[in-house]
Amino acid sequence: MTIPARTAVTNTGPRQPVRAIPVAIAAAQPADRVMTALATGDTGLTEAESARRAALFGPNAIRTHRARIGPVVARQLRSPLLLLLAVTAAVSFFLGERTDAVVIGVIVALSVGLGTVNEFRAEQAADALHERIRHRVVAVRDGRARSIDLPELVPGDIVELRPGELVPADLRLLFSTGLHCDESVLTGEAEPVRKSAEAVPEGSPIAELSSCALMGTVVATGTGRGVVIATGGDTEFGRIAVGLARKEPETEFQVGLRRFSMLLVRVAAALTIGIFAVNLVLHRPLLDALMFSLAIAVGISPQLLPAVVSTSLAAGSRLLAQRGVLVKRLVCIEDLGDIEVLFTDKTGTLTEGRIEFMRTVAADSSDGTETTTLGLVCTDGSIEQGALVGGDALDTALWAAPLPQRAAAGRYSRLATLPFDHRRRMVSVLVESPAGERVLITKGAPEAVLACCEHVPESAARALDDEFAAGHRVVAVATRSAVGTTALTTAEETGLRLAGFLVFLDPPKSTAGAAITRLTTLGIAVKVITGDHPGVAAQVCERLGLRVEGTLSGADIDRLTDPELAGKLSTTTIFARIDPEQKARIVRAQRSLGVDVAFLGDGVNDALALHAADVGISVDAATDVAKDAADVVLLEKDLQVLADGVTQGRRVFANTMKYVLMGTSSNFGNMFSAAGASAFLPFLPMLPSQILLNNLLYDSSQLAIPTDTVDEEQLARPSRWDIALIRRFMLVFGPISSVFDFATFGIMIWVFHAGESLFHTGWFVESLATQTLVLFVIRTRRTPFFRSRPSVVLLTAALAAVGIGALLPVTPLAAALGFEPLPAGFFAALLAMILVYLALAEAAKRWFFHAPGPVPAVRDRRTDHRLQRRAARFAAGTRPAPGTYA
Q1: Is residue 868 part of a domain?
Q2: Membrane spanning segments where (predicted)?
Q3: Is 345 a catalytic residue?
Q4: What are the tens digits of pLDDT across the range 535-594?
Q5: How many CB atoms lie within 10 A of CB 700?
Q6: Residues 335, 338, 345, 596: which is the catalytic one?
């Protein structure tokens, strides 16, 4: 899915005054020459110039999309079912059956119209959701840095790059600090590539263009600034992606629908061939036999199943959007309902996310003033006019505190930076102190920093343990003299002296405890994956009432094989000090046990795990790479909001299954009755046009199913497609329906001595009434109406369909449809049959769902369609790029 309501424009116009510069050429040119060619400068473009270039080059998007009525209608007309109806209407018309042809034509028009309206509304809902998911980028215009929508970038814009961000276009770097980009989407190489503003020889391969940052790649570490040299389809990524197939592999929900459709095709084929053969043996007219057989094939098919599904998904997406849950693909709503294990980060989800600096604990007996100053200086963010720009959450909290040491920190001159990464879990800076000495300062996770120190005082170790036991976040600061050092590498981070610890507080979120309880009642196990210390995570979980069964650290996981890791998951709640690769490994291990897994994360280090999960969940304030990797975006990082999404996903599936179970059993019963009746009646039991009209009235009433209420027990656990259960349900409840059809046949022939027209009318009214009203029995496993009430909309729609069917025989349309008025005594018999039928269906339902059945098998993860979808996107290079949603 792509950004809606935009049209792609590429730079192919004649004699453009400003042209995008090919990446290979730009890389080989000095940065100032590239800026001159793009008619830009250090102050960036003016707003007027950027508007002119936007009109010239178009939006910075690989693919664009908006909901259009034409393609929706075309997809409706491609339906094999509608083709069958159209052929039937044409044959009827040319053979003189003009009334049948008109009726079938009206049915085709109504079916296409209903399907088009519902699918178009679903596309509009998806477009509205995508409009709410924005990618922003910091660009310099008119000399000021400002945040703009990513599609608004044009060649010549000056762009800021920060860790965790997607590179928004092809850029020629102007300067960088420790900048490394993950280019695996283009090159397949897992290791981030170092980037700098130095030119490379012309003709170098893309992987060696160290002076260019390419669209769709990810800023792994460091910062930088660059000038946009190409946007949209003119980028290196765009040239690969723009010509690729856009159809995504199916979700499990879609696979279930397809398998269900194949079941109906097989049943319809068997009935159609059998009925056609019987009619030929009985020497019925060939055309009548053919038309009746075709009508049977159409009648057993739930014609509006796609409309019911799209209506459910669209309604579900609107409700979720109101609750702050944006689903990037509508079919992923059902995936939400399948979640059995949720892996979540800690900060901002279980905690308030408002990190506050508490105090400094010096390693010696000092007051910690020096430690605080060193902590302020050691950051990979930028310090501009005494303020921090672009630091992480802990650095931001430290600089936000009213500390007198900020003035002293400003007197240090930073010479080099070794940015933070998730393997080292440290950041180091080379600075010149106010006294003119070169000093190396290192700051990071206590375990990592202490491992680089020559000596750790016992008192400092005890103080660290006390802070962890209290649930505080701790950052260690160490230093050493660096005389003669001019550049920083990881080899320099040795022989350090521990200066002390910076202590931060991130209190548990007040709503998280209730949310965890609610998720538990929904059958979802909540587990925590964090880069923090295990003691801190355990304290937070304990305060929130999340039972901690066990803890594994990143070091523990490294010592385990994949089968061993999978074996420990059932007794592990907290995974601490985990790096990005380990997060993805944990998720894959959990999925290998045959359960559906969701992962909630918002950082660049969460992208691998988001891709590995069945459902990737991020938040609107997350990094671009996290939002692109996710299937679901939360406008608020709150587990209560996620629980709403799970509930809605299960509601969508439950209502879809109501239609499937009821429609297949009733339609199968009716068609089975038609097949049996055609063997002994001297005429067709119902005209083809009447069968189709019956099916249309019935299906139209079922469009209200998405509004129906769902019983709590149906929401308590995830449900999945079970084709075997659907088949058994059809074979049990279909014949029950046929019993009352045959009773109607007997009443019409032996009591009312009905001719062909009256017989058709009686069965039409009875079959429509029974198959529509039985929904109120099948829609719940409880006692209908008393312990489970349907929605008012569904009740009204069902009664309206039955009423229309009963009134048609007395309207002016009756003769054209082949109907005639029914005697009053028929309706008394009909009422009695309906009551007995519903009672028998209720008894059969209780037996069916309580009788022992086959044990469901664990799903085979080798055919995991979501994993195939992810793999296909990476292999083809169609991983979502800025300006697109896939």
Answers
A1: no
A2: 77-95, 101-120, 263-283, 289-309, 729-752, 758-778, 790-810, 822-840
A3: yes
A4: 889 989 988 999 998 999 998 999 999 999 999 999 999 999 888 789 989 999 998 898
A5: 19
A6: 345
